[in-house]
Amino acid sequence: DDSFDEECDYLFKAVLIGDSAVGKSNLLSRFSRDEFRLDSKPTIGVEFAYRNVKVGDKLIKAQIWDTAGQERFRAITSSYYRGALGAMLVYDLTRRATFDNLKKWLEELRHFGDSDMVIVLVGNKSDLVHKREVSEEDGRNLAENENIFFIETSALENFNVEEAFLHMISQIHKITS
Ligand code: GDP
Ligand code: MG
After folding, report:
1. Which helix (H) or strand (E) holds 96?
2. pLDDT reported for residue 177
3. One MF term from GO for this chain (predicted)?
């Protein structure tokens, strides 16, 4: 990764969480490499990806951690969250259960995460309009109640992916600077 060589002002760690197969790995590959895989297998091996982002006159290296499939067994440990300043909490808007499980993910975040962690709620797969099981309003309401940012995305169509990550990164920058 040649971005390692660039001079950065800050290094931020952020984590991806949410149920299995909601699109976490594809959101990250879209953001870090502009890649998408229709047949994507559970993440194996890759632990995190980097992308450098300019915020104002600062160059920020965002280190974004992806689960290696542990979410299937609800076996994400505290070390995954350690030092994370941001979390992207993802559900699949075509599967209601992944939205209903957000409560558990938020509990886990509050338990393991930093109290001032920036949390972004992401409803992914907005391209699957006819399969939608969670309205945009449901997502927005939950986010309002939890006082977190909300956005719908499509990793497949590359819709709002950049916006979701950049919001999280610029919020982290705001809080830490
Ligand atoms: P993860 O388990 O949360 O990391 O989910 P993956 O990124 O592995 O994606 C699970 C499945 O959903 C794969 O078949 C992806 O191709 C598909 N997928 C991910 N994002 C989208 C999206 O935005 N739209 C559609 N239609 N499929 C997606
Ligand atoms: Mg994955």
Report:
1. helix 96-100
2. 83
3. GTPase activity
